[in-house]
Amino acid sequence: MTRRVALIGKPLRRRHSQVMHDAAFAAAGIDARYELMEIEPNAVERIIAEAHGPDWLGLGVTAPYKRIVAEMCDEVEPAATAIGAVNNVVRTTDGRLIGFNSDAPGFRAGVELAMDAPLEGLEIVVAGAGGAAHAVVYACLAAGALRVTIGNRTASSAMSLAARFEGLHAGSVVGVGLDDASFVSALGSARLAVNATTVGMVDPGVTMDVQALPSNATVFDLVYVPPETPLLRTARARGLRAANGSEMLIHQAAIAFERWTGVGGMAEVMRSAVAALLADAAAPA
Ligand code: NAP
Predict the structure, then answer these.
(1) Residue 66: active-site member
(2) Tens of pLDDT along 180-192?
(3) Does the beta carbon of 81 lie inside 6 Å of ligand 1?
(4) Ligand 1 pocket, 223 CB below 6 A?
(5) Which CATH number fits domain 104-244: 3.30.420.40, 3.30.200.20, 3.40.50.720, 3.40.50.2000?
(6) Under 8 Å between Cβ of 21 and 3
(7) Active-site residue among 4, 66, 108, 147?
């Protein structure tokens, strides 16, 4: 029996996940395939019902279904509940569906690799307050960051995100507008600056003034299409450490793969498989 994993979302423009997971299934000798399912909202419930069946290993979930799927799982892991988003589902051997979030641990793995240092004890600025920013802020605080300053174009969303995590961990968290003076001053003492917006992918420009960062700061942009955003280009021109979101993408996929199959250590296989797509500056954003 060929086992199945499907990525559900709408629209689905990218093949990165499919390429990584199919390469890992082949390398691990597992008879399974990863399908892209661009579905309408009224089809989500049917797919979830189907995914209880024995031929399924689980699901990948992307926008706009990360919240709705959480409500349809038999169980949601605490971290995914805290973040407010399920981006993967694993089917247990007794047919239960468990929702989890691999973006947070994927981000942590990717960013710690980029910094060559742990998140613990750091002052961090995060631009953005959407789905990805929720996972990023959670990961930073859960890893023991000292202070996280969230700046968002819509300041109220940054404040809501900060309020969501306030007091849950030892580190402090504050949400402000992207152009607020306190965001600009937080840049001055940040060891890590994260772009978790779509700026650089969808809209041109940058979300923060790289010149305001200290010289030992790392700039991490979740965007991986295009491979080098204006933010990363400016950071590198200043001599700062800088990395895009490709290692986060690879690590979150490897984490999900291990949950579905029990087979770990697939990051290198996935990295090789997706390298050409990641290098393609003309790939769809
Ligand atoms: P989202 O939920 O739609 O959030 C979008 C965010 O971008 C919001 O904070 C929004 O601010 C901000 N934004 C949009 N246009 C802006 C502009 N012109 N100026 C300033 N801010 C703007 O998206 P998401 O799911 O969080 O994804 C964010 C990015 O992360 C995407 O590029 C996505 O590809 C990337 N991502 C990467 C990985 C990875 O593995 N590397 C994983 C997940 C996501 P407002 O609230 O003001 O609208």
Answers:
(1) yes
(2) 999 999 999 999 9
(3) no
(4) yes
(5) 3.40.50.720
(6) no
(7) 66
